[in-house]
């Protein structure tokens, strides 16, 4: 049996990603791709054009669906949104900059940065939660 390759591609840029400083989006801030983000997705598609894809899965968020649609079109695929692949829940920090967070909640900020797998975003998930949600989907879909 030939090997299976799994490509993990992050969504392209939104205006929140491009803001100076960037703002956390999480799953409750769901802006569309910025014009530069569309260009980034097209560039990724072009780089990957020599590879054959049989499936395309994505987060149900708009920015991920838009990115996936651009990538999948080359292979005439329709991206399949999977709830388990949704962005990390950044809780109360959604829409904030890291500097805002550092100033308004320095103890939680320091604790989160030191151990993001153990300490969650306030009102959201820790990275261990994300892993436990995503890993079974990846294991099921790539076998």
What would you say about this model in short?
By secondary structure, this protein is mostly helical. The protein is built from six helices and two strands; from the N terminus they run H-H-E-H-E-H-H-H. Strand 1 (57-58), helix 3 and strand 2 form a beta-alpha-beta unit.
How would you describe this structure to a colleague?
The chain has 143 residues and is mainly alpha-helical. The chain has a single domain (15-142), classed as Phosphoglycerate mutase-like (Rossmann fold, 3-Layer(aba) Sandwich). 43% of the residues lie in helices and 3% in strands. Strands 1-2 form a two-stranded parallel ribbon. Helix 2 (35-47) packs parallel to helix 3. The relative contact order is 0.16.
Features:
two-stranded parallel ribbon; Rossmann fold; 143 residues; mainly alpha
Instruction: Sketch the topology as an H/E string, one letter per element.
Output: HHEHEHHH
> How many domains in all?
1
Shape: globular
Main sheet: strand order: 1-2
Which class in CATH terms?
Answer: Alpha Beta
Kindly report how far apart the N and C termini lie. 11 Å
The proportion of residues forming helix, as a percent range, comes to 40-55%
Report the count of strand segments.
Answer: 2
What Rg is obtained from the alpha carbons, in whole angstroms?
17 Å
Number of helices: 6
In percent, how much strand structure appears in the residues?
A: under 5%
Low-confidence stretches: none
For CATH, the homologous superfamily is named as Phosphoglycerate mutase-like
Might you state the CATH topology name?
Rossmann fold
| Average pLDDT | 94
SS-based class: mainly alpha
CATH architecture: 3-Layer(aba) Sandwich
Largest sheet: 2 strands, parallel
């Amino acid at each position: 049996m030939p090997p299976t390759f799994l490509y993990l591609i992050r969504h392209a840029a939104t205006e929140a990603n491009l803001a100076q400083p960037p703002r956390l989006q999480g799953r409750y801030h769901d802006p569309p791709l910025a014009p530069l983000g569309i260009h980034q997705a097209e560039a990724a598609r072009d780089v990957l054009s020599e590879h054959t894809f049989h499936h395309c899965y994505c987060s149900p968020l708009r920015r991920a669906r838009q990115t996936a649609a651009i990538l999948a079109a080359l292979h005439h695929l329709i991206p399949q949104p999977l709830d388990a692949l949704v962005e990390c829940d950044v809780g109360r920090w959604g829409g904030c900059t890291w500097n805002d967070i550092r100033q308004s909640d320095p103890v939680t900020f320091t604790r989160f940065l030191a151990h993001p797998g153990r300490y969650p975003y306030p009102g959201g998930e820790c990275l261990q939660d994300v892993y436990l949600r995503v890993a079974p989907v990846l294991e099921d879909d790539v076998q």
